[in-house]
Amino acid sequence: MKIRIALPSKGRISEPAIELLEKAGIGLTDNSNRKLFSNTFDPEISVMFTRAADIPEYVADGAADIGITGYDLITEKQSDVEILEDLHFGQTRLVIAAPDSSEYKTKDDLKNVKTVATEFPSITENYFKQMGVDVKILSLSGATEIAPLIGVADVISDLTSTGTTLKMNHLREIDTILESSIMLIANKDSLMDEQMAEKIEQICTGITGVLFADDKKLIMANVSVEDLDAIKELMPGMSGPTISQIYGSEDIVAVHSVISERDVFTTINKLRKIGARDILVLPIERILE
Questions:
Q1: The predicted structure's pLDDT at residue 31
Q2: Regarding beta strands 171-180 and 182-186, do their DSSP bridges make them parallel or antiparallel, or are they unpaired?
Q3: Tell me, what DSSP letter sits at residue 43?
Q4: What is the reported pLDDT for 56?
Q5: How confident is the model at residue 114 (pLDDT cuts 50, 70, 90)?
Q6: pLDDT attached to residue 33
Q7: How far is CA 64 from CA 50, 74, 149, in A?
Q8: Lowest CB count within 10 Å: 43, 104, 208, 264, which one?
Q9: What are phi and psi of 145, to 5 degrees?
Q10: Which residue from 180, 181, 182, 184 is spatially nearest to 64, judged by alpha carbons?
């Protein structure tokens, strides 16, 4: 039994996906020389690199058992896969946009659209069908923004994360069709196999453990026993702070707790006011519940 993971070979989610696997303990043995296939430090797991747009179909067809790709691509391909986890990065939106100078300014104006340029013809066509608008879909493989500016389309359907590129090209967002982020998906037949399903669950657990730990820090400090009640209020942790006896001391104990990264600065200063000392802040690689 060997599990094959499909990863994007290039693009905005390729490196984050590789890094996520490495942090989960599934490092590539030959990442320095990217090939179509790569082994990992786990002999039961291999990786295949391909276009992000092809991953939903490869996973649906069983060429790969699991994959990492965008929800927008899964929806566009209408792939019959199991979504295991939203990985909460690579957030983007598929939007309808028109030139600032055009007559299309509101969603209601889109009823008069005749031609739409997009890299997502299926999603876009369904959007206009739901509005009861019959449009011509101009399928492009890139540089969608130029289509209405050169007169080959009335509006575009395109991905955006901040809207900056649209504004730079004098385009205005009219409506959001789809919100997307990066997903961990699996082949449904692979999940029906007991051995493969167990291995896929291990991979999923490793990845989600990395994600859960992403904004967490471990704080450790030595505190006086008489200050423990106040410490518990400051360091509630995931299930309460852990308290350990310090060898040779009855008055001082070691306390450690996992807290959100955004609370570290405030917590440290409050701990110091209470009298805590020897404070350590440590990164966390993974948290498994």
A1: 63
A2: unpaired
A3: T
A4: 97
A5: very high
A6: 53
A7: 11, 14, 40
A8: 43
A9: -60, -25
A10: 184
Strand partners, 116: 137, 155
Give whole-number Cα distances, 236 to 166, 224, 263, in Å: 45, 17, 12
- pTM of structure: 0.84
More confident residue, 240 or 48: 48
What residue type is 86 in one-letter code?
A: D
Q: Token pair of 154, please?
A: 């009335």
Whole-number Å distance between alpha carbons of 122 and 287: 39
- The token pair at 212 is 């859960």
Q: What is the pLDDT at residue 188?
A: 97
User: 13-40 burial string, b = 16+ CB within 10 Å, else e?
Assistant: bbeebbebbebbbbebeeeeeeeeebeb
**How would you list the strands of the sheet with 66-70, edge to edge?**
37-39, 45-50, 3-8, 66-70, 182-186, 82-86
Please, what is the average pLDDT of the chain? 89
Collect all residues with Cβ–Cβ distance below 8 Å to 181 and sequence separation of at least 6.
Answer: 70, 71, 86, 87, 88, 89, 90, 91, 92
